[in-house]
Every structure is written in structure tokens, then in C-alpha cells.
Amino acid sequence: MEFSQFLGFLAFLTVFTMGFWLMIFLLTFVIPYWVMGYLRENAQLKKQAKQHK
User: Is residue 23 part of a domain?
Assistant: First the structure.
């Protein structure tokens, strides 16, 4: 394995690892945050609609 191939492999590994951790971060923190915010906002809107009836 030549040195340039090794550098290419390291670059690929770095990009792949960064993508993997970004995906894990999104799945564990960002998406649940969005879902909870949506549900909370929906509950507030329903509560406001009940109050105005």
C-alpha cells in the first residue's frame, strides 16, 4: 500500500467517521427535540382552541 493510498484511506475514514457521529447526534438529540417541540406546540394550540370556544 503506497503512502498516497494510505492518506486517501485516512481521509475517507475521517469523513465516514464524522458522518457517522453526525448521524448519531441527529438521531439522539435533534430529532427528538423537534418531535417534542411539535407535540408541545400542538398541545398549546389545542388548549387555546378549547379556551376560545
Answer: no
Rounded to a whole number of angstroms, the CA Rg of the chain reads 22
Number of folded domains in the chain? 1
Tens-place pLDDT, residues 10-39? 999 999 999 999 999 999 999 999 999 999
- Residue 8 C-alpha cell reads as 486517501
DSSP states of 17-38: HHHHHHHHHIIIIIHHHHHHHH
Taking the C-alpha atoms of residue 11 and residue 28, their distance in angstroms, rounded to an integer, is 26
Q: The pTM is what?
A: 0.63
